Amino acid sequence: MGWSLALALLVLGPGLGDGFLLVRDMVWVPDLALRSDVLGLGSGLPRAVPSDAVVAVLDEVVPGLLLQKLVLVGALAAGGVGATRLLPAEATLVPRLAAVSLYGWNALVAERLLMGAWPLLVGYAVLPWLLAAARRWREDGRLPAALLVLLPLGSLSASAGLAGAVALLAGAAGRGRTARAVLLVAVANAPWWVAGLLHAGSATSDAAAAGVFALRGEGSVPAPLAALTLGGIWNTQVHPGSRTGALGWVALLALVGLAALGVRAWWRGTAARDRTTLLVCWAVGWALGVLTWLVPGAFGWAADHVPGAGVVRDGARALVLCAPLLVVLVAHGVRVLVDAVAVAPARAVLGVGAVLLPVALLPDLGWGARQRLEPATYPAAYAEARDALAGTRGDVLVLPLSSYRAPAYNHGGLVLDPLGRVLRRDYVASDVLVVDGVALAGEDPRVTAAARALEAPTPERRAAGLAALGIGAVATDRTAPAGADQPDVAGERLVDDPTLQVTGLADVRERHVPAGWRAAMALAWAAFVGGPLAAVSTAVRRRRTRR
Fold first, then answer.
1. Total structural domains within the chain
2. Do residue 356 and residue 421 come from a single domain?
3. Which residues are in coiled coils (predicted)?
4. Does one domain contain both 106 and 171?
5. What is the secondary structure of 87-127 as a DSSP string?
């Protein structure tokens, strides 16, 4: 645990300082409100369900600033410790430490951290624990209470939940367990798939997104080969520099070489079902990732025609399923290599080198990805706007209609606009994503309707059009590109700061959420929290019985 924690602290480095880490999709705020869109009842697709709701509940107990740090450190540290659970009980210290190093320090961790995909990193951390619990269920015949906690914890996003589902079914299916495993997966993922069904009418995605989000090569390393060492995310801006040069090839040869060296020992020393479990996970993850690179058109067609199919368009996300086998094989390879050296001092040096190899192959992950992770402090105007909106009706429209910002308070780093989340109100903001000059259409119909309302010829008509959509206030970030050139809207100026303007609208027709939607999501959330509560209750009962 100590080595895993040390690596986690070294990865985050300056990011653990005072302030929030605001990195692309990672947007944490001082106090996230448990509002309807967080619960899956908003007008847009529930992309942050259930992660936002979990944070909104937990930050009532632990301040959001501290909670973010605990989640990131905990995820990075717990994943490495979990990786050792996949090794044989008799595994020695060096292979165990090598497994910890590789699981916590690799291209997937680097790229997803720089993308701000913290729910996926939590799911990645849970994965080895989930596989170990599935094995225990298979061997003992009794459902481990830990699974009732691990599955929801590993399902804070749709992609993480699907990876967990593959892992559980691969590890536990058979002899009457399959139906129960499917039920557990459905329950643990209920918030996002139920909310997705409720939004099925707008759940298709721009077909062009499949090509944008497909697996990518890193430097001269082709995508299928980059995937072998867990790299290849679509966004080349978050590719570590060490992965795009000669060191990328060195990493490929070193890790694949060690894995190949460990295959024989792993095959001989591992039960057939355990081998099958890891092989199935690896095959599903690598194949899905590579297929997005090989046939992006097929994924684009599916996303455009099948509601919800866009969840698999980011092929590199599936590579979390490849990590367990890679780490286990490399750990076995390290054991074979170290055991082949007879001289004790040389064996010790080789062991230390093997443990530090992942760090040496990816040096730019250290110290906050070379200080690309810097904490930020929100402007005082954001808190003023939050307080000013406390007694108003309706949702907030955030302008300008662009998804990402690079604000000065975030050191110019790109981040999904955090303003709406700070304001503690349901909000409407652009969900159009621009990548390499290609604009990918969003899915929230109210964004399009709001844009049309803003095209009205007068401020009064714009305000009336927005109010009819359930918009009760307009918040304009004046520091964003085109922020100073937004259409004027008639209403009361609630905040008029050089950086932020908030206008309250009159005669708001509040958005109606059907009672059936509320009932469906209430059941989904009850199912989601029911498993962990049952596990805690069981643990308490067992402890009392032992006493």
1. 2
2. no
3. none
4. yes
5. S-TT--HHHHHHHHHHHHSSHHHHHHHHHT-HHHHHHHHHH
Statement: residue 437 has pLDDT above 90: no
Chain centroid to CA 86: how far? Answer: 23
Amino acid at 257: G
Q: What is the pLDDT of residues 151-192, one digit of tens each?
A: 999 999 999 999 999 999 999 998 889 999 999 999 999 999
**Residues of the domain holding 399:** 378-504
CA 263 to each of CA 309, 320, 325: distance values in angstroms, whole numbers, following the listed order: 35, 20, 10
Non-local CB neighbours of 279 within 8 Å, separated by 6+ positions: 325
What is the DSSP code string of 384-398?
HHHHHTTT--SEEEE
| Residue in 211, 210, 231, 235 with CA at minimum distance from that of residue 221 | 231
In whole numbers, what is the pLDDT of the chain averaged over residues?
95
Instruction: Find where tokens 């604000």 sit.
Output: 407
pTM across the whole model: 0.96
Instruction: Give, in order, the Cα–Cα distances in Å from 156 to each of 38, 63, 185.
Output: 12, 19, 12
Q: Are residues 466 and 317 in the same domain?
A: no
Q: Which of 348, 371, 394 is the last residue of a domain?
A: 371
Three-state SS at 214: coil
The encoded tokens of residue 338 equal 């170290």
- Looking at residue 547, its pLDDT comes to 63
Strands (DSSP E) contained in 350-422 are: 375-376, 395-399, 404-405, 415-416
